[in-house]
Amino acid sequence: MSYFLSFAFPLRAAAVSVGLLALAACNSRTAEAPPAEQQAGQVIAKVGGEDVTIHELQNEYRHAGITPDKVNETVTRAILAELVRRKGLAQRAKAAGLDREPTVLLDVLRSREQVLATALLQRDIQAKVSSIGKAEIDRYINANPDRFSKRVRFDVDQLSIAGGNLRQTFLDSVKDAASIDAIEEKATEQNVPYSRGAGSLFSGDLPPQLLERLRARKDSDIFFIRAGNSGTFFKVRAEAPEPLEGDEAQRRAQVLMRNETAQTELTKKGSDTDVTYLGDYAKLMENASAAPPAGSAASTPAGGEAAPTTPAPAKQ
Question: Could you identify which of 9, 135, 177, 299 might form a hypothetical disulfide with 182, taking C-beta atoms 3.0 to 4.6 angstroms apart as the criterion?
Answer without folding.
Answer: 177
